[in-house]
Design a protein that fits this description.
The structure holds 3 protein chains of 3 kinds.
Chain A: H1 8-24, H2 26-44, E1 55-56, H3 62-65, E2 67-68, H4 72-78, H5 83-101, H6 103-114, H7 118-129, H8 136-146, H9 153-160, H10 172-200, H11 204-212, H12 217-242, H13 249-255, H14 261-264, H15 267-273, H16 281-310
Antiparallel strand pairs in A: 1-2
Helix pairs in contact in A: 4-16, 5-10, 6-10, 7-10, 8-13, 10-12, 12-16
Chain B: H1 2-27, H2 44-48, E1 61-65, H3 76-85, E2 89-93, H4 99-107, E3 114-118, H5 121-129, H6 137-143, H7 145-150, H8 153-159, E4 160-161, E5 164-165, E6 167-171, E7 178-183, H9 184-190, H10 198-211, E8 221-224, H11 235-238, E9 245-248, E10 251-254, H12 261-273, H13 286-294, E11 298-304, H14 308-318, E12 324-326, E13 339-341, E14 345-350, H15 358-368, H16 371-379, E15 386-389, E16 392-395, H17 399-403, H18 419-427, H19 431-441, E17 449-451, H20 461-482, H21 491-515
Parallel strand pairs in B: 1-2, 1-3, 8-11, 13-17
Antiparallel strand pairs in B: 3-14, 4-5, 6-14, 7-11, 7-12, 9-10, 15-16
Helix pairs in contact in B: 20-21
Chain C: H1 6-37, H2 41-45, H3 59-65, H4 68-99, H5 107-119, H6 124-133, H7 141-144, H8 151-163, H9 167-174, H10 179-187, H11 192-208, H12 211-216, H13 225-233, H14 246-250, H15 255-270, H16 272-281, H17 286-290
Helix pairs in contact in C: 1-15, 3-15, 4-8, 4-11, 8-11, 9-10, 11-16, 13-15
The chains are: A mainly alpha, B alpha/beta, C mainly alpha.
């Protein structure tokens, strides 16, 4: 992708080789047709809606007849008083979530792979993915009780150990940690599934060969299993980085309160709380577009870096 | 870079095709009322089956209503209305979270003849101004004598957009929502009377805290509340600010700019500091606060009277001899007292431009407001669904619950004189709830019911635009003040910020209207 | 596996301990909702129900799962999940296979075109107009066709195809097998774990989707379970400003009913996973196919 200056002659040579490859694999290209039609009809056809972000959209007039406002919607977002604080919170919470929570499902999958008792393994797998199916309202309500300074089980333990009860949910310094922890609680089992499947896809012969060579289980884990799932790890990591600006709006909305807005307010919650996007399609589209553009850029960068340093890439 | 330039070309081509496709598809929305092919399966049968079914050639109407947990079409009221009005109506409903969906239905020109929605003045005015609704005045003049009799001029004025009326309202049916609910058995135990002033309230809460009449130990809470509520009903009225905007020297002023704001905040912050207000108040959600009161750990809570049945059931199970009552209007240090008194509308019924039978829609509404039909719609038949004594209607259970409980969702406008009386039958379903309702709404003197004048204000652009943000700012700031995370020395700076965020423009608009009201 | 070393035992013990602890704490929220669904209402609203039910009763659950609307919605959801998952798996595998051939010109561009739609979309209004144009309003198709390919799942399965040894196909090609034959006879049979995974992802997506049904489905008889659930559970908080009507306040479903609805509408999809797990645990024996 980066070799810009190719001599013209070589280019022609490469071109004809390309054509040969294409002609020799027309059947494979034909397989793409349904997927491309789907893409065009359901994804690209409605894409004109993005220009709403540059309009003062009137839903009754439609896109064609709405007034253009240029970048006014973006300015409204960026010039809000708290925007910098909110953006910083978004990035911090998201980064914490990636750094701390991304590796855990991988470790979990590796551990589960070491379990030989099938019934136990399946039971645990099923149990730890259960919280994924409960909404944040339910999970947050539960944590509010567990962490309550009066009667919450965590503070009962602290008290019985002679400590002072901690008001977790109203402590600005603790809020981000609580967000990261509960997000992990809810999603690690679900996020591990893809790694568990990837491990199952590794050729068994490799392990047999390693066993004969006398490699222990830990050694096998490091030298066979991990490299075997590296492609999927990189894929997941790159995609995860693409959603950097989504720090968990729904989660935080159900958990936070005015005393922790300083550290806890993220873009999504701020926009929602201030009613900025209400009935305002243009503004919400602009916020979405901002997130998407940053996300897409991060995916492209992530992919290039991964290609350069790990020789693994999505495209 | 070759690959990337190809990439750009691919993108450009894709987007060109998109534009073409889009141009064809987006042009005909709006005026295209019946463009979409008939959807497969679904409601087609009921729609297609009945165009000329009724005797006098009355068309079948399509009505969109608010969400309920039962099918409108199968509910007994639908049949009753069909018999009384002679119109066959096909009912659809919005989801609970309804604004998005209504926008799409309105914008794409779905051909509903009637849309009944919760009162959202901003949305209503938006539809009206964008030409999505039919002007009802001439239709009502021609076909709506019952409508004219049922709706007051005051309501009609409040709903006018640019001089025209686009909606038929169902007004709010009662005055007061909530107050402090207090454990009267705790009062007896600490030997105090029901408080009548804010000072007495403090004394009571102190006694609740110190004497722990519920025997709750370190989980004892005197007064609990929830974190998204910074203005405690009844207390905030005692400081002369029962509504979000209150009259100060002839002008309407929002609470944050009210001279009494400081005193109110100081009072509540002091409650918090002394531990009389739940230490966890800020983190409490609605359910957490109620759990504390229901389980007998809290002596007082601020709730709506509609919450009473659940509270009563749970509390008496947990503490069999528990008793509770709403605290009447408390007098503040300056002698003020009051509750916010509801004004305005509960629901609005509109006729979209896309309606195929606007005249019949009005005729149908008119027929539903015919006094006997309306009474049947509201509370059913005497002896079957209710018993009457003077002006008090008592429901007969379970017939009332089965056949009229959701009846108000079928209304398209309500008689402003009789409906509040009929409506109380719903509250009487539960005697404990009625008692609480009665205390607040029927037994409080009129002078403590302070009307929320903005409830009857017409749509105001600036106010409507910045209202939610301003309210969010005040709530957050006040909660921080109460919990001691901010202090009042920063009030002026915050007020300046608040003004700049839209209060100044709103206040001008609001007072221009108020002066000429 | 005879003669386990002490290190192995310790390793196993450690792993089991960690997993059991994890299982216990993640079970907590589900156990809580489950207990609420079979407890008496007064205990729930007093905050007395933790992991174990208080005043065990099954009336609430029975009330929820025997309601006509629940059963109809359940049927709709099952229909959507079955048709949607099968169709999605098919078209996703079909698309991913050529995309896994990186050496072919143009594939990179197509992948980027797909990834682009992961981040950018037209928004609610154009999508609604499209569905309307296609005549899919109030049609279960509106919930399936626009979701046929999830790019996330496409990339997972593509990545899996890339990891298969090229030698597999080469021998088949020499024997003159066509692309379709190779995909369906050689590649897919070796893709059990990944197909099970994205099959699960698709099934859960179709099951959990409530936003699209909310926009596109009008008839009560076509509503899927999640929309029904969402309507019952949403804004049950009586203080909610969204539905400020007092008559709504007086008709808020009890918390026990809400919990029972959550449980009844979650259990069916949760049970899919254990059945798929046999495909996860086998491990792939490529040698057997090769030889």
């Amino acid at each position: 992708m980066s070799k810009a200056a190719t001599p013209p002659a070589a280019r022609i040579g490469a071109g004809s080789r390309r054509w040969k490859l294409i002609r020799g694999n027309l059947g494979l290209y034909a397989l793409l047709v349904p997927g491309l039609l789907f893409l065009l009809l359901f994804k690209y056809a409605p894409m004109y809606g993005i220009i709403i972000a540059f309009q003062d959209f009137n839903i009754f007039a439609g896109v064609a007849a709405s007034d253009w406002v240029g970048l006014a919607q973006f300015e409204k977002l960026i010039h809000s008083d708290e925007f910098l604080q909110v953006l910083a919170n978004t990035l911090l919470i998201s980064l914490y979530k990636i750094v701390i929570l991304f590796p855990i499902p991988i470790v979990l999958a590796l551990l589960l792979n070491e379990v030989r008792k099938m019934l136990f393994k399946r039971t645990i797998q099923t149990i730890i993915y259960l919280p994924h199916f409960l909404s944040w309202v339910i999970i947050s309500g539960l944590f509010l009780n567990i962490l309550s300074p009066s009667g919450g089980i965590v503070n009962e333990v602290i008290r019985s150990l002679g400590g002072q009860p901690i008001s977790f949910m109203t402590d600005n310094d603790l809020f981000r940690s609580i967000v990261v922890f509960t997000a992990g609680w809810k999603e690690i089992g679900w996020n591990a599934i893809v790694f568990i499947a990837a491990i199952a896809g590794i050729e068994q012969e490799q392990y047999e060969a390693a066993s004969i060579d006398g490699a222990g289980r830990i050694k096998q884990m490091i030298s066979i299993t991990l490299p075997g799932i590296l492609p999927i790890i990189m894929l997941m990591l790159i995609l995860r980085i693409g959603s950097l600006l989504d720090a968990g709006t729904e989660q935080i909305l159900t958990m936070y309160n005015p005393l922790v807005y300083e550290n806890g307010d993220v873009i999504g919650t701020y926009v929602y709380r201030m009613g900025l996007g209400q009935q305002d399609y243009s503004f919400s589209t602009a916020v979405g577009l901002f997130n998407s553009a940053v996300g897409f850029l991060l995916i492209v960068i992530g992919n290039s870096l991964s290609r350069k340093f790990l020789q693994r890439s999505i495209w | 870079m070759r690959k990337s330039s190809r990439f750009v070309i691919a993108m450009v081509m894709a987007s060109l095709m998109v534009m073409l496709l889009a141009a064809c598809s987006s042009n005909n929305n709006g005026e295209n009322a019946s463009g979409a092919a008939s959807p497969a399966g679904s409601a087609v049968s009921s729609e297609a089956g009945s165009p000329a079914a009724s005797p006098e050639d009355k068309p079948s109407l399509k009505r969109l209503g608010v969400w309920q947990d039962q099918d409108y079409n199968a509910y007994p009221v639908a049949k009753m209305l069909e018999e009384k009005t002679g119109y066959k109506v096909q009912y659809d409903m919005l989801p609970q979270d309804w604004t998005e969906k209504l926008n799409l239905l309105m914008a794409s020109g779905e051909s509903y003849d009637l849309v009944s929605m919760f009162s959202d003045m901003a949305l209503y005015s938006d539809y009206a101004q964008k030409g999505a609704l039919i002007d009802l005045t001439p239709l009502i003049d021609q076909y709506g004598p019952n409508i004219k009799a049922a709706i007051s001029q005051q309501s009609i004025d409040a709903l006018k957009v640019d001089g025209k009326l686009y909606a038929i309202p169902t007004s709010v049916t009662y005055d007061i929502n909530s107050s402090i609910l207090i454990r009267t058995d705790w009062l007896e135990k600490v030997g105090l009377q029901m408080p009548t002033t804010t000072d007495e309230l403090v004394a009571v809460l102190k006694a609740f805290k110190e004497k722990d009449p519920g025997g709750n130990g370190d989980q004892n809470v005197a007064l609990t509340g929830k974190g998204d509520q910074a203005m405690f009903d009844n207390i905030v009225g005692a400081f002369g600010m029962p509504n979000t905007w209150n009259e100060v020297d002839g002008q309407l002023v929002p609470r944050l700019m009210d001279p009494a704001y400081k005193d109110y905040v100081a009072f509540v912050a002091d409650l918090y500091k002394q531990g009389l207000l739940d230490r966890e108040y800020v983190a409490n959600k609605d359910a957490t606060a109620k759990e504390k009161f229901n389980s007998g750990k809290a002596g007082a809570i601020i709730v709506h009277w509609a919450d009473i049945p659940t509270i009563s059931d749970a509390l008496t199970k947990n503490v069999p001899d528990a008793k509770f009552a709403f605290v009447p209007a408390l007098k503040g240090p300056a002698g003020k007292a009051g509750f916010s008194s509801n004004a305005g509308f509960d629901r609005l019924t509109i006729i979209p431009k896309a309606s195929k039978h606007p005249e019949d829609a009005i005729k149908w509404i008119n027929a539903s407001l015919e006094p006997e039909t309306f009474k049947n719609l509201a509370i059913g038949e005497e002896g079957k669904h209710y018993t009457a004594e003077n002006d008090a209607y008592t429901p007969i259970l379970p017939a009332f619950n089965d056949e009229r409980n959701l009846a108000n969702n079928f209304m398209s406008g309500a008689d402003e004189q009789s409906y509040p009386l009929y409506w109380q039958a719903r509250v009487r379903k539960n005697p404990v709830m009625f008692e609480a309702f009665d205390t607040l709404n029927n037994k409080q003197p009129d002078e403590v019911k302070i009307q929320n004048v903005l409830g009857l204000a017409p749509y105001m652009q600036q106010y409507s635009k910045s209202n939610q943000q301003l309210e969010a700012m005040v709530t957050d700031y006040t909660v921080k003040l109460i919990a001691g995370a901010e202090d009042l020395s920063g009030l002026e700076a915050f007020q300046a910020k608040y003004k700049a965020a839209g209060e100044e423009a709103s206040a001008k608009e609001v007072n221009d209207w108020y002066a000429n009201k | 596996m005879r003669g386990k070393k002490f290190g192995d035992l310790a390793l196993d013990g450690g792993i089991y301990l960690i997993l059991i602890a994890l299982g216990l704490i993640t079970l907590l929220p589900f156990a809580n909702v489950l207990s609420k669904s079979v407890s008496v209402e007064w205990a729930i609203v007093s905050g007395k129900v933790g992991i174990f039910p208080v005043g065990f009763q099954l009336d609430t659950m029975q009330f929820v799962i025997t309601s006509e609307q629940f059963l109809r919605s359940l049927f709709n959801s099952v229909l959507i999940v079955v048709i949607g998952t099968v169709a999605s798996l098919l078209i996703t595998a079909l698309t991913a296979y050529p995309l896994s051939k990186r050496e072919l010109p143009g594939m990179g561009i197509v992948i980027v075109l797909f990834i682009f739609t992961m981040m950018f979309n037209g928004g609610i209004v154009p999508n609604y107009l499209l569905i309307r144009q296609l005549g899919l309003i109030d049609d279960l198709g509106a919930l399936i066709w626009p979701a046929l390919i999830s790019v996330f799942n496409l990339l997972i399965i593509k990545s899996y195809f890339e990891s298969l040894p090229p030698s597999l196909e080469e021998s088949a090609k020499i024997e003159g097998a066509r692309n379709y034959t190779i995909l369906f006879r050689i590649i897919l049979p070796l893709s059990g774990p990944v197909l099970a995974t994205i099959g699960l992802f698709y099934a859960v997506y179709y099951w959990n989707d409530y936003f699209n049904p909310m926009l596109y489905i009008n008839s009560m008889s076509l509503k899927p379970l999640q929309l029904y659930l969402q309507d019952i559970v949403i804004n049950a908080d009586t203080s909610s400003a969204l539905n400020g009507s007092t008559d709504n306040l007086m008709n808020v479903p009890p918390e026990g009913v809400r919990s029972a609805t959550v449980i009844a509408s979650t259990i069916p999809i949760v049970l899919v996973y254990p059945f798929l797990q046999k495909y996860f645990n086998k491990g792939v024996l490529i040698g057997s196919v090769k030889g």
